[in-house]
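Subgroup meeting minutes
Present: P.N., E.W., G.H.
Scribe: E.W.

1. P.N. recapped why we're keeping a running log of single-chain structure predictions: easier to compare across weeks, and new members can see raw inputs and outputs side by side.
2. G.H. added today's entry (199 aa).
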Amino acid sequence: MKLVLASNNRGKLAELHAMLAPLGVELIPQGTLGVPEAEEPHRTFVENALAKARNASLHAGLPAIADDAGLCVDAFGGLPGVDTAFYATQFGYPKGDDHNVTALLEQMHTVGNRRAALVSTLVALRSPEDPEPLIAVGRAVGEIAREPAGTNGFGFDPVMFIPAFGQTFAQLPPEVKNAHSHRGEAARQMVQLIRERWL
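Output recorded in log:
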């Protein structure tokens, strides 16, 4: 089965390709099919993932899967949430993972409550009008480190400290991170859902 991935993020593609491998699906990034980026006007991960999946399926004429993910910081009332990718731009930095980390550490400099969760919401559709989208949500709870550590991963991985490991996600080997990450949890649920409902 071919499945269009509603993303052009190389890190996300690599992770999801590995995680969905048990299904034997061919995961095709939307950019290779000329699919335009979807609007993401919503305030929840599930609504944005659904919009992205519908857009990709409509333009590609294939079943689609989309991920909307972000960082939810307790001290900020769950923000940046759906605005995670553009977090740094609120503080005068260009868009980008490294700038996001810099901006977050600056904003949290005097914050005592470091608890945060990385959240991933995966939505899969058989067609653009599929009335029964498959929805899987994964959460990885940790703390925002005082400084970045590690070179694996992307996004906020260098500052997402996981107490159970005593390391950030970026310090863990990819297979260990994928087994315990928000996207890993969501992908395992999605593999099960696709097996039960589509195959």
